[in-house]
Records
---
Amino acid sequence: MFRLLNRVFLIVTGFLATFIACSFVLSVVSVPAEQAQCGQKTTIYLQYSLVHADFAIPSNVLSGETRREVSLKHHPSLGDPDFIVFGLGDRDIYINTPVWADLKARYAAKALFLPSDRAIHVEPAFGVYEKWIPLEICDYQVKALEDYIRASFSRDEKGNIKEMTGLTYTGYDKFYEADGIYTMFNSCNNWANGGLKAAGVKAPIWSPFAQGVIYHAKRHKPPSDPEMSSRLMVTPD
């Protein structure tokens, strides 16, 4: 029994060490970013903590269909939100962890080692927070990111997104069922990383942890102006 336990310990330790090493290497190396050019640009934001990253998108650039489907409540004093924040994560952690200080070891262990259901958290924001990372991108890149987010929602036979009724942190946010399975290889931060890739923004090859997504987002270069580029290409007579 002792030899068996020792062998299991060595296997688990080796697996975790390999996982962390691969996570670090693949988080540092980026996929090629699109050389975007456009005159009309929009600034979206990456909302992040030490363990999680979300997208904050200006409400007025989202499609009417997306705003109608998530239909966040009107705030009596703040009005309609300036931004709608989308995040995806492990369903049980979302439900049982209103703030990260509430995270319990059993939920974290389950999310890491056992496949589980995913959920999408949608919340309003009434201004830009100090620690948000700005990402200036073209309008068509915003549309690509919105399409990526919309494709993550689980839908019923009629095509409606599935709200997890009765679940809220503040009364103004909502939870929805998400397609796919949550695993340590397909984490919340991999979802955020996939959104950056869908938008053609510089992103790591693979990043199960928030640090890789944050690292590359902070080094994002805004799209160039095609008119300015054409001027630079003209040589004087």
---
Amino acid sequence: MSLLAQGRGAAPAGRAGGPPPAKAAAPFDPTGYWVAIISEDWRWRMVTPAKGDVVSIPLSAEGLRVAEAWDPAKDEAAGEQCKAYGAPGLMRGPTRLHITWQDDNTLKIESDYGQQTRLLRFAQAGGASGAGGVKAWQGVTTAQWVMAAGGGRGRGGPRHGSIKSVTTQLRPGYLRKNGVPYSDRTTMTEYWDLHTETNGDEYLVDTNVVDDPVYLQTPWITSLHFKKEKDAGKWDPSTCDARF
């Protein structure tokens, strides 16, 4: 049964009269294997740029100073090979994603690039919006379905919407693999949309807003595209690497 069919059927198990779980309420199915389409910014995303190549990122003076001091050997010595694989850098990498529902209110996003795992936790009305604790490469992400005007109001018709996710509690890392920094005060807001072509190809578009009061002068906004693959045949896990 499709997710849309589940959402239009009988009320799911849970609190009487309460909101349905995020999985049942989904206006589209984000699950499956997805490959990053890197048709722009190739020289910054597919290879490690030279030190100081910070073009297009609105760095503050302090951000530029830190970027120009990048030393991958120091990262390796400190055991921080994954600094470019935190959530803000990971999503721009040459990665494949495997997206599944971990439970009815948690979307799990695994990457073969650096073997990272993100959890998008959908907050329920009256419930907790996320967990605190130690800062991590993938931080803490809360999510919600944002329905288009009129989406989900009628019976039997198609529903349209996006996932809005907000990530905080990030461990300091890199926006670009050559040491362009983001701090532990960073907030990353994403809007995830599904687009289906007439030939049936599906694309997941992640509009990504990184806001860092320490190293950025203004929010950095990019749009990342992923194409759905039929299976895990091209899944190619690799460990974090500070240089390549």
---
Amino acid sequence: MISTRHEKLGRCNSDELYKIIESLNPDVIFEEIPPRFFHEFYVYKSRRNLETDAIDAYITNHKIDQVPVDSDNIDPEEFIKNYSIVNKRIEGLADKIGFDYRSLIDLNNRLIATQGFAYLNSEKCIKIHRELNETIKTGLRKINNERLLQTNEVLKNTHEQRENKMLENIYTYGETHQYKNAIFTIGAGHRTSIIQKIPAFQKATQVKLKWSFYTH
């Protein structure tokens, strides 16, 4: 599993991700995109992000199976809108909560820009994401706006649905396909919860995958 982000920032870019993919030489790449958008990314090229740019370059010279594993039942535009609503409210708080949130965002971006994938796949990144989540929870309790709380619950449920679907699709693929080496590109914000969910999926299926988590 490689923790990534969808937009380039400094040393976190498609060229660096390409190098990582090449070094791992996968037979299969599981991608954090919904199957219904696959052709838009790789055939019509009407959508793109950091990961698909790297993978698109890689498949030019390598034969692999590409497996889009995200949920087709989620509206990405609606998800982004709700995410923006919650985070902008916390960011705009004129108190210590807002200051802490802005400081953590700045630190996160600075480390992404200077350290790239080494940071995104580190314990430091997990710690900062945990602190960001706690700051958001504290801010939401202070604001105490029912609609905002409901929006955040929708976000949490959407995260759960997507992560469960992605792991389900990875294990389902393993039931009918044999391969030696695969990678799973996933946004760094999912890293902790995906790792926590894996043991349950390992127990629930006869497909036993040997997971490793990329570190630079």
---
Amino acid sequence: MYLEFFNLGKSPFRQPPDLEFYFPLKQYESASAYLAYSILNSEGVVLLTGEDGVGKSLLIQKLMAQFDYASVVARVFQTQLDDTSLLRAILVEFGQKAFGLDKVELLDQLNSFLIDSYVNSVQPVIIIDDVQHLDVRALVELRLLLGLETDKVVIPQIVLVGTRAIEDKLQLPELSSLNSYIHLRKHLVPLGLEETSDYIRFRLAVAGGAEREVFLADAIESIYAHTKGIPRKINILCDTAMMCAFADECREINAGLIDTALLELGWETKDPENSDSYNSTASLLSR
């Protein structure tokens, strides 16, 4: 590995998302604060969207770390489910036995669990990842769970996480009721060029490499151009570039090494941006 070569204590661009490498970008901090406030104040459904790899999973990890003993969380990752399968998955995530039960029994058990949690001052939170893949019937079932609202709070709190595609699905007539329950919508966007530069330096610093620059300005420009500021893609490309630099015994990474990494990954190596606006923006790092 390249860690010793670059004098690093840990891998700076490792996957999957790790809270130790949470980058406190303004949009992340804002979304985190709003999501936490809405959930802790029992305001119903919140929606977090953004394209794949933009940082939603890490933000949800941060959010879950804020929950204390007064909360119980069910996080569902497998979302190609129908209504019955979703109910079963939620119950399993809540630590309940849910196998061998039909839909009516699942609903009864889940309702009982949610009410018991509320009575015992424990807040149940349901987090659905990749919600855009859920069957419409399953989304309708989520709305029905919100029928447990009391005169003071909504039970349970639901966090929907996915791409913009869920917004289109929520426009379906049968989902209008669920759509109306969404109290907060937050959308994450890719990083800009300077944010990409800061992100790379931040992760290297966390990994123990704060003493010097590893990625030169032209390398960062190329990384931004080929990843469009998507953190997951940045991580993959940077990790591969550092492997290539290690193989070539280069302690500084320039645009040429990024091209080598792109070839290793099988990504497009031609400059994906030819517009004057891109060239103008890219010049910021070389000033």
